[in-house]
TrEMBL record, chain A:
Residues in ABC transporter domain copies: 10-246, 256-500
GO MF assignments: ATP binding; ATP hydrolysis activity
Top-rank lineage group of the source organism: Bacteria
Lineage: Bacteria, Bacillati, Actinomycetota, Actinomycetes, Pseudonocardiales
Record-linked SUPFAM superfamilies: P-loop containing nucleoside triphosphate hydrolases
Gene Ontology CC terms, in alphabetical order: plasma membrane
CDD domains, alphabetized: ABC_Carb_Monos_I (cd03216), ABC_Carb_Monos_II (cd03215)
Primary location group: membrane
Claim: ATP-binding is one of the keywords in the record: yes
Keyword annotations of the record: ATP-binding, Cell membrane, Membrane, Nucleotide-binding, Repeat, Sugar transport, Translocase, Transport
Record Pfam families: ABC_tran (PF00005)
Keyword check for Acyltransferase: no
Gene3D superfamilies: P-loop containing nucleotide triphosphate hydrolases
UniProt-recorded name of the protein: D-xylose ABC transporter ATP-binding protein
UniProtKB/TrEMBL annotation, chain B:
Signal peptide (UniProt feature, chain positions): none
Protein name stated in the entry: Autoinducer 2 import system permease protein LsrC
Stretches that traverse the bilayer: 33-50, 62-81, 87-105, 112-133, 139-160, 181-203, 233-256, 268-301, 313-334
Gene Ontology MF, one: transmembrane transporter activity
Top-level taxon of the source organism: Bacteria
One of the Pfam families matching this protein, by short name: BPD_transp_2
């Protein structure tokens, strides 16, 4: 499908960019041809985001050139990149929540009628046309506030094609989507590709790259490693090139003989969210909670931990009841919850790394009610070292770390409480393979030490690789309890979609 | 992955469609309607208690007062929708009132339109100072305009040095403009209406207006969308300053007596008018219509309490309660809207 003989729509040629003496990107080149989906992969911090920002006109390359349809181009700002036909869909949606969806799509290039005023009718009609072309139902008149992440991405795509962009850059668009939503997104991307657009697709999920992309550019430490056809590379080879070494195993699961039941959840219900949820987790066991996004997985673990209330049911740790709606009581009982959204729920972004790590134990570390530097620093240093966190100084704000390292800080924060039950909600969302493997190894080690681990995950390979048992949720109920030997991608998806193996 | 496509279509498609109108617009309309209803009740009650409240003189007083406040509130709205604030407007009003008053005093033959334009020019320059400090100083507008509030006021005191301009020092033609009407409507009211309509159309129907809302709604996204954030910011503060300057000239015309303290504290009343009128202080939403109605409501409250012979203290308390009420209603409506919008989302699942 790729028209390799054609002029690339966009070419990155030997660009370099440094931020205060740190080289973020050096000597990176690759072309984007019309009609191709091109994957850009690399660990967090490999320089992908910097490339994206240069293509978007946010940053300007220090050296090297960008070529648009063979012509050299310099983008002074995002407006220039947009004018050159480059549309960027960022990981964090960039919609205007107070404006209508139609206005969001038309922003900056609203059709004008009499006296140069915006033709509001046409703005609405054009949005409606775009949505019907994309095959989605979103009311163009509704405000963008409250749209699901998946719908926000569809609106971003509508924005891009409405502005007749020929190059679409998608920075981890699937990170927060369920399988169904990913499939819908891919269908849209394929249509755009077939219409001759070039798509640069950034993802940490290899199955998506092999499914969607023709070629893949791999980056490591800011440098270009290779650009190849995806079908010529194995996943192992891609991983090796990304991390520059062989990973021992992607899922280093240790076999552990499960011990006594530690966490017991009985008939947990909350009106309209989940119903009659019962399960147990033994010491040394890793239990995965799988299911579609919206099936109630996160809500269940939040109710177990007590962040949210529950209408009925009981939660016991080592046979002792945990009070409902009281995270302190859950923590006292030895539970820890690593939440899904680390920026919102897991970390205080402006506080230092060490303060974040020691937050749950601030009371124990304080002397006479005051937090002195010493104890806090020692404790934080110990845990960040164990998790191989990369940081400048312990006193840096945690917001300055990369996504993977932030996740390690969240983990460190809870591990420092020596939990008996560790609940992790999407532990590896948006972090790179190298860090992923470290997080997985850590979970496995913890289980081997006798911690009961409950993991919510949307990534099937992770579920299959890590879990001793898979609980599949569907519409607020536990639809299946699948032991490791019987757990396959098919058996889990069937249970999650409500179709037994008769399709 | 092919299993994904075999899902029953029925569960996927809820009937969201185009059934609902824009709920946010409905809320805003409800807000403006609410103010009108509150106004009607207030006017009716006060009139029953004291029929003189609707006498020509009293109505004219209210309308002139509301006009000046509305001009300021419209300018403030343009700044607030960009998630900024202009606290210097009271001082700009004082400075321009004194400056234009002095010029008119020295040049009795000066045509009135020129006096109005001069006021707007002085105010516009003050606004630009604010914009440049906010944009290039990377300092929040709250701090910058708090600083210029004192600075502009200081300049006025320095200049006036305790002297004041009195009505008999100003040319009659200048002052009589306050009484002149077109088809029975005072010119001051017409000017306020013109300003409101022009700003309303600009904000609603022109690209730059929508960009101002976009900037307030999500500043980072506005930058990424290629909106000229700096230019728009400069424009918004300049317009706010120019309108404060215009209000300063109107103030001079209406009262005739100007000292260095003119307009002291007005900035808070202006922000209150905008907030009561449904302009969100965090930017991105609200209309100049609401702000202008808010200005009218606050002026009527002030006058009716005076007519009803109620203590000044109660006026302040009532305005305070009204602001809290307005914000409370906003939160409630926002929560409801959010819930409603979430439900309409369900077609993905």
């Amino acid at each position: 499908m790729t028209r390799q003989d054609a002029t690339p729509l966009l070419e990155v040629r030997d660009v370099a960019k440094s931020f205060s003496a740190v080289a973020a990107v050096r000597g990176c080149s690759f072309p984007l041809y019309p009609g191709e989906v091109h994957a850009l992969v690399g660990e967090n911090g490999a320089g992908k985001s910097t490339i994206v920002k240069m293509l978007a006109g946010v940053h300007q390359p220090d050296t090297g050139t960008l070529l648009v349809s063979g012509e050299e181009a310099a983008f002074a700002g995002p407006a220039d990149a947009k004018a050159a036909g480059i549309a960027v869909i960022y990981q964090e949606p960039t919609l205007f929540p107070d404006l209508s969806v139609a206005e969001n799509i038309a922003m900056g290039r609203q059709p004008r009628g009499r006296f140069g005023a915006i033709d509001r009718g046409r703005v609405r009609r054009e949005a409606a046309e775009l949505f019907s072309r994309l095959g989605v139902r979103i009311d163009p008149e509704r405000p963008a506030r409250g749209l699901s992440i998946a719908d926000q991405q569809i609106v971003e795509i509508a924005k891009a094609i409405g502005g007749s962009a020929s190059v679409l850059i998608m920075d981890e668009p699937t990170a927060a989507l369920s399988a169904v939503e990913v499939e819908r997104l891919f269908a849209v991307v394929r249509t755009l590709r077939d219409e001759g657009a070039a798509v640069l697709f950034i993802s940490h999920r290899f199955e998506e790259i092999t499914e969607l992309c023709e070629r893949v550019t791999i980056m490591r430490d800011g440098a270009h490693v290779s650009t190849d056809l995806v079908r010529d590379l194995t996943v192992d080879e891609m991983v090796r090139r990304m991390v520059g070494r062989d990973l021992d195993a992607l899922f280093p699961k240790q076999d552990v003989e499960p011990g006594a039941v530690v966490l017991e959840v009985e008939d947990l219900s909350r009106e309209g969210v989940f119903r009659d949820v019962s399960f147990t987790v033994r010491a040394g066991e890793i239990v995965a909670l799988a299911g579609l996004v919206g099936s109630g997985r996160s809500e269940v673990v939040q109710a177990v931990f007590g962040v949210d209330g529950r209408d009925s049911g009981a939660v016991r740790v080592n046979g002792k009841r945990v009070r409902p709606g009281d995270p302190r009581s859950a923590m006292a009982a030895g539970m820890a919850l690593v939440p899904e959204d680390r920026r919102q729920q897991g970390l205080v972004m402006d506080l230092s790394i060490q303060r974040n790590v020691t937050l749950p134990r601030a009371g124990a570390l304080a002397r006479l009610g005051l937090l002195g530097g010493g104890g806090e620093r020692r404790e934080a240093g110990r845990w960040t070292e164990r998790l191989r966190t990369r940081y400048g100084r312990l006193t840096d704000p945690v917001g300055t770390l990369s996504g993977g390292n932030q996740q390690k800080v969240v983990l460190a924060k809870w591990l420092s409480t020596s939990p008996r039950v560790l609940i992790v909600d999407e532990p590896t969302r948006g972090i790179d393979v190298g860090t992923k493997a470290e997080v997985h190894r850590l979970m496995s080690t913890l289980a081997a030490e006798g911690v009961a681990v409950l993991m919510v995950s949307s990534e099937l390979p992770e579920v299959l690789g890590m879990a001793d048992r898979v609980l599949v949720m569907r519409e607020g109920r536990i639809a299946a309890d699948i032991p490791r030997p019987r757990a396959t991608e098919e058996s889990i998806m069937f249970a999650a979609m409500g179709q037994e193996a008769n399709t | 992955m092919s299993t994904v496509r075999t899902r029953p279509a029925g569960s996927a498609a809820s009937s969201s469609g185009s059934s609902g109108r824009n709920p946010l617009a409905a809320v805003l309309r409800a807000r403006e309607l609410g103010i009108v209803v509150a106004l009607a009740i207030l006017v009716a009650y006060t009139t029953i208690a004291n029929p003189r409240f609707l006498s020509a003189q009293s109505v004219r007083d209210i309308l002139l007062g509301a006009s000046i406040l509305a001009v300021l509130a419209v300018g403030q709205t343009i700044v607030i929708v960009t998630r900024n604030i202009d606290l210097s407007v009271g001082s700009v009003l004082g400075l321009t009132a004194f400056a234009v008053g002095t010029v008119v005093q020295d040049n009795p033959g000066l045509p009135l339109p020129f006096a109005l334009l001069l006021g707007m020019a002085i105010g516009g320059v003050c606004g630009m100072v604010n914009a440049v400090l906010v944009r290039y100083g990377q300092v929040p507008a709250l701090v910058v305009t708090l600083g210029t509030l004192y600075m502009f006021r200081g300049v006025t005191y320095l200049w006036a040095g305790g002297q004041q301009i009195t009505a008999d020092e100003l040319p009659r033609s200048f002052l009589s403009f306050a009484n002149e009407t077109l088809l029975g409507v005072p010119w001051l009211v017409l000017i306020a209406l013109l300003v409101t309509v022009a700003a309303g159309v600009l904000l609603r129907n022109y690209r730059v207006g929508r960009e101002l809302y976009a900037m307030g709604s999500n500043p980072e996204a506005a930058m990424l969308a290629g909106i000229s954030v700096g230019r728009n910011l400069l424009g918004a503060f300049t317009v706010s300053g120019a309108l404060a300057g215009l209000a300063g000239v109107l103030f001079a015309i209406r009262f005739g007596t100007i000292d260095a303290a003119a307009g002291t504290g007005d900035e808070l009343e202006v922000v209150a008018a905008a907030v009561v009128g449904g302009v969100a202080v965090f930017g991105g939403s609200g209309t100049v219509w609401g702000a202008a109605l808010g200005a009218l409501l606050l002026t009527v409250i002030g006058n009716s309490l005076a007519v009803l012979d109620i203590n000044q203290f109660w006026q302040n308390a009532i305005v305070g309660a009204l602001i809290l009420f307005a914000i409370g209603v906003d939160r409630l409506v926002a929560a409801r809207t959010a819930r409603a919008l979430k439900k309409r989302n369900s077609h993905v699942r």
